Each structure stands twice: as C-alpha cells, then as structure tokens.
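Quick entry, no commentary yet.
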Amino acid sequence: MDYDSFLDFYRDVIDNTAIKTFTLAQELYELYRMSYFMCNWEKNPLFFDDGTYDGFSALSMALGMKDAGSKGILISVDNYGSNGYQYDGIGLDGVKRECSKYPELIKYIDFIKSDDLNYIRTLSSNSLSFAFIDSWHEYDHVKKTLLAITPKMKSNLSMLCGHDYSWSECGVVRAVDGWREVNKTKLWAFGNSIYSIWYSVIREKQ
C-alpha cells in the first residue's frame, strides 16, 4: 500500500470513528510498512503494542499484517489510567467498539487492560517478532520497559521500535540511547525513520 492509499484509511478512521491519535499519519504509515515487512519475513508472528491509547497504532499494524496475508496476533496493552497515569481516551470498551468497525483488522488484535511491565514479564522469552513502545514516557519507565522486553524479542530477527524519540523533554531519547549502547552487539540496524519513530532490528551476529 502506498502512502496515498494509507492516507485514505487514516482519514476514514478520523472521520468515521471516535478514535483520536497523537501520532502523525506519516508515522502510522511507517508502522504499517514495518509491520508488513515483518509479516513477509514470518507468516505467524507475535506482535506487541505497548500503549494502546485509542487503538490507531494497533489498527495500522494490523493493516500491515492483513496486507501481508499474515496469520499472526497483535497484543495491545494499556492500563487506561488505572494506575493514576493521565488518560483521556475512549477507554477499553470504546477502543473495542470503534476498532470493530474494521472487522478485517480487529480480528488480529487482542486488546488487554493491564500494567504494561507486568504483562511484558508474562511473555515467553524469544517470542516477539515486533514490538512498538508508546506508553508512559518518563525515563525510568521507558528504561524498565526496554529492559523487560529485550529478552522477549526473537534473536534471529525481530524489530523493536517506539514513538517520541524526537521529544527531548521526555525520557524516551535518554532511555533509548542508553539501551542502544548496552545492546549494540545485538543490533543489526538502528535509526530514526521519520519524525519521532525510532526502530531497531535485532539479529544474531553470524
């Protein structure tokens, strides 16, 4: 799918649902493209979305899964403000209701209300093909999230990415750069693809 076609999808979601997003259309398209790539590498991947908010990122990843003919699953987790973190979205019931307007996409997604760190720790090691980090942006939380999720990523090939890498006032840049330095031997590639999206390709050294 080219960007213009994705933009039609983006506008349809904005115009016909109650879903809001702080992520730019270009950034969501990057998520679509990365998801599509990973699903062409592996047909039955396990994806993880850390920080559902209203579900737009999850829908964009699911669109990539669909277009690649994937049989994978996307787990999308958010605490929806239950731990005191400020949340002004439509809530879990609203996310499920609005995303169900796209039945060809929601069939890929399992929306879960949970503390993200607690849920990540329940995942099996070496199980995730793709993960997108966009929850609480405070430095300690991002650092703990990256520490917890790294052993869950498939070591033969997986992609770990996140949002707000260009937002210097939050803790994302510091936490990601520190994680990158510690794990540099595991990283096949690292970059800031567009605007605030950072990504890393994890692959065993041959």
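second:
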Amino acid sequence: MRIALRLVVFAVMSQAISVGVPVIDGKIDPTEWVGAHKGDLSGGGKVWVLQRGGFIYVAVRGARPGLASLCAFQGDTVRILHASAATGEARFSRSAGAWIQTAGFEWRLRDSSLAGGPVVPQYDEMVQEIGWTANPSGVGSPDREFRIRADIVDALAVTFLATAEPMTLAYWPSTVADDCRINLRIAQGFLPASATFDPSGWYRIQKPAG
C-alpha cells in the first residue's frame, strides 16, 4: 500500500514538473522546454516554441554571440520584439497595403556589468504592461528567452543577428521572405520608416477552438 501511494505521489509530482513553464532567465534548460515545437534557424542556431497557460514561450539559441528579435503579427500590426543588451518594442501598422512605422523602440529592461540584469518582478511587470518580456544580455549571449501573451500574436518570425564579423542573420521559419529577415537594420534595432511584411510565411500560433 505504501509503495503504491509513493508511486501515485511520484506520478503527480512528475506531472506537475512536466506542465511547468520556462523561467525567463536566458538559460535554456531542456527540462523546461519539454513538449516545445523545435526548429532550426536558417543560417545556424535553434528555436523552441511552447504554448502554455495563455502564453507563448520562445527560446532562441544563436550559433554565435549576438541578439534576437521576433516579428509578432496580429490584425494590422507587426510588433518588433527586440532583445539585445536591452529589451524593447517597436510597431508597424498596415495602411493602404504598406507597413508604416508607428512607434519606435521603447526600451524596458537592461543588462549591464555595473547594475546587473533584471529580476523576476521586473519581467512580470513588463508582461503586465505590454504583454511580453525577454532576457537582455549585455555580453551578447547566444541564448534568449521570450514570454508573450497568446492573445496578442497570431504569427511569429524569429531572427538572430550574430554581431561579430562577419555579421550574419539567421531566421526561422525558412519560409520567412520579407523585411523581418531581409532588412538587417530591423534586426539591429535601426528601423526604417516603412517595411514589407508577409506574415503568411511566418509560424502560425495555434489558437484554442471556440
């Protein structure tokens, strides 16, 4: 009886661990990403996408040190979710067939050698205020983790810019064929006044039925 009870307790604990969510700390722990959709960045690197508890979690591992950006589409808006030494968001809106920049980057969280990186309450506050967060890295770590509210995104494209020479841009999925990957300045954080986006080639977020 005691053995059976222990097995039940172990099974419940194992299930609780398996349905946990990734901690946004820039450390891609495989145990936190069990069940995630996995992809290869075109140009080198890996990406994980996990939908859980009303959020989309994205982990990006570049082939070399650099920075990550997500292009997040919904309705007539594309958000640029940028994670370098700081995290920030910019926006483009569709108007008469063109995508026009409507908001430049507003920087939120920073990582520096003097002040250190963000703490958990700061990540949570950013999610509450603008719907997403990610870990910055002042030293250009190849690993970035994002947490995004599922109700603010219908499709995603992922880029990772290796900042050391030769500077290269890796992207996912392989069907991305617009300025999210073509315009290097968007990945760098230097935004054009207008851009070309085609979210039909991006990764579609699976929404619950009903």
